[in-house]
């Protein structure tokens, strides 16, 4: 006899009632209840704003589903005024007995609940492990804890008490209230857009954008494994903080100096991961920080005062001031003595701005004897009670009055805290560096501040008092003794920061600036080239201008600025370095004159930054002016003349003025040797390297090779085979060997040079990429086109992503990659990239620069291959004229273009003109690079073809055989150079921009 089939157990309905701040707990509970075969429903409510009424719960309990109600008790109950606590207690005592086990509760706060919550008898989940918390949750919901959860291969929400894999978000603000609709809109926007969503929360200053973003992060903690918060109001800080993510992700490049390398690594890793949220807080100019916008299956939240972010794919959500109900609730939380009516009046006086409500309510809270109506009336009518606010005219009178009361109250009742506030206003408001003050030398601070800083307990107490009075956000970190936690940074709203600075007298302003500058001097590690000091310099840079360092005449203060500029150079932050060095030079010139040593160093740094950004004309202007100054100044240090000549020489080298650059480098090397007394020290070796590069650019390849070889040997002897000077010398030695046509030797050296670059500097370091670029060129000349093309493509992709398409290195690699594509038969691809490179060179360097002419001739070669013979000829003729005007007819580049122009004439039906041009160029080629150089032999082979076409067969054959014999002496028979001439194909030359 068979038994009747067992009916499936009906699913238990559970309504999870929670306040918005417990969203992550609610999400976790829903997931666990669903896995236990229940049917949960999340019901979000706001007990702060809802009147205590039994219907709030009975509506759920009397629903047709007849399920259970599970109340999530958190800190909201503790924040209710006493009268509301009592009212809700009465409601619970009425309905809990009536509904029995159908109304249950869990608590997710570590605090002790008030007596009003006792009827719920909530089950504690906080402080447990996820397994025990799940067991208790199911038991409280009336589910059998022993029921096995169905197999779930997906990943549910993380247990809220578990730490995220990576998390640097600000601490949760437990005073946060309101903004429920905005928080729902944020979550809905991310959910609707899905992976890769970008949402910009925008609004004017003071409406609480940062606080809303912080609340969103903590409410939805379970949805993300990675949360990375970036202070994005200042470009350098944004890039530096985003670059730090690479270390946390475990992908930080080894031995790579530049921030862009770390930013790229972080972006690439996020592209491979999911469940991440990046917050860019205070972002203003999208273009300035576009390089740190992550892409991939995560979310990006931006807080900003601007709406242009929609052009970068962001969904815009506007954050208005508080609704009045929110304002009142917030004010009541901040000042317990306020009545709802007074809170309403206060909110109206400050126009419902959260920042102003926080500060005014805080003032009332710490001044219990003050009359609330009088205070509100003073704010409304702009009476700051004698606080000096006249310089802050860009704020409404009510704002000035409120802040004036705050500042004036501190000045009168807590003078030490007031002086600390003034000093902190001379640092960046985004991250006020409390730790810098804590590590300052005793003599750098006034005695009473020094005593305050020296004792952690009084220091922390003062900062907490300041935070309470001004609504500054405090972030803690381990103190000097590991058993003590101390304040590390504070965040001051920018509006209030400007107000504090603006109300100071000139004397107080100068005094605070002087103290702030001394603090920065104490924090300077004095070695920007050492990677271990970079976090310290990243912390210093945002404070330089606000502290007044750019207006200081103190040598030590100026040294901090110059060291920070050098740090920016080493990290590849040339835009910020250009701005800071130019500002310092201009300011110090007004104070100390144009030949002051600090001014000259700043000018040199400015020209260097312009040069690295490709702004060569600007760099030339700075360099020539500086050289004129130091050449005529009798009190200028001799080393400044060396620096000026070397710097201007580098600029002229980039501009194609090779003869003048060589003269300057020659003089700089001679002057430095005479001054420093040693021919091999790093500074002199660097100048000699610049000289050798310039000689190569003049087309004197053998002389340049000899000099690079000498520098390489000396570098190995003095610094070892893996020093950066050695790697640089090895790269250029191989480069010159390749240009000399000694392809196999060049390839052997460059392969080892690439390996050393990857070992010492990392495989993706910018210098390693240039080394790989030269390796690809060596491979190409050795006949390994497929490998060369793949390697060049990888190098080009990395450099453009890191530097942008206009960077000199990107243009150099793009020009060479185009010709590799031509070699492999991809003429459309080659044409597109070559044309783009030509246009960018013309924009950057001008139409008469040798590089512009050379790349234009490369385009003509591709045009000729595509059958555009007339257009190719015209373009090649123009390029030849430009190159010869720039460098003369005897330069190797002029000869190469002449060879291509001869070929273009022949293809266009003018063999006589081709032969005439080839015959004139051949002796110049022999004089420039020698009888047996590849350029000379290819030119001869092309001339032979033209002579044969016009009927001079005997002369043609003689020239052809001589070229073949010489080629065979240098290359094996199967080499492409030999086969090319032997098969009667038309030889060509393509222009390769040189690495500077």
Word description of this protein:
The protein is an alpha/beta fold and 996 residues long. 60% of the residues lie in helices and 7% in strands. It is built from 43 helices and 13 strands. The strands form three sheets. A six-stranded parallel sheet has the order 6-8-9-10-7-11, with helices on both faces. A five-stranded parallel sheet has the order 2-1-3-4-5, sandwiched between helices. The protein has a two-stranded antiparallel sheet with strand order 12-13. It is elongated. The relative contact order is 0.04. Mean pLDDT is 87; it is low at 147-153 and 383-395.
Give a concise summary.
By secondary structure, the chain is α/β, with parallel strands linked by helices. It is built from 43 helices and 13 strands. The protein is elongated and about 120 Å long.
